[in-house]
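Lab channel / #folding
Pinned by the channel admin:
"Please post every new chain as: sequence first, then the C-alpha cells as a reply. Keep commentary short and put observations after the output so the thread stays searchable."

First post following the new format, from NK:
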Amino acid sequence: MHKQTIGNKFSGMVHDKKVLQIALFAFFLFILLISVAVYAIEPKRQAIKVVYFKSLSSYITWPKTAGLVQAMTFELCIIGKDSLNDYLHQAYYNTNRPIKKKPVRIRQLNRIDEVAGCHLLFIGESESRNVSEILAFIKGKPILTVGETRGFLEKNGMIQFYMTGQKVKVKLSYPAVIDEGFIMNPGLSSVIKVIR
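Reply from TO:
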C-alpha cells in the first residue's frame, strides 16, 4: 500500500512537471509570436510616417525667413535616437524624392544647438524628457517641429504622430504653426486632425 502511494505521488509529480514544461513552452512561444508581430508592424508604421513627411509639407508653406527658396536642399533634421532615421534615408537618399521641389538632406543632430538651417525637425521618442527645452530653444525659428511623444502639441510642438489601435494618425496645432509664420493650406484639415 505504501509503495503504491509513493508511486502515485511520483507519477503525479512527473505529470505536473510535464504540464509545467508545456505551459512554459506555450508562454515563451506566445511571447516570441508577439515580438515577431511587433517587429513586422514597426516597419509599416515608420513607412507611413515617412510618407506623411512629404504629404504634410505639400500643404504647408514655410515663412520667407526659413530661406527655403534660396536653399539648395530641404534640411530634414532628427534629434534623438529613432529607427525612423533609417527609413528616411531609404526613402529620400535611395530614391532622390524631393520635398518642396528640393533634394532632401537628412541630418542627425547630437545637440539642439546644431539646428541652424533645419526646415523640419523630428524629435524622437528618446528625447521625451527634453521636448520642452528643445521646443523652447526653437521658438521663433522657422522650423516645422514634428514629434510623437504624448503631449507634444501641448508643449507647443506643431505636428504629432499618434497611434489609434494599429493605425498611425497625425494631428496639427494650428496656433503653433501660424504663430511661427507658416501658412497652412485649408485642405490639410481633410487629411489630418487640426487642433485650433
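NK: The chain has one domain: 43-195.
TO: also worth noting, The chain has four helices and ten strands.
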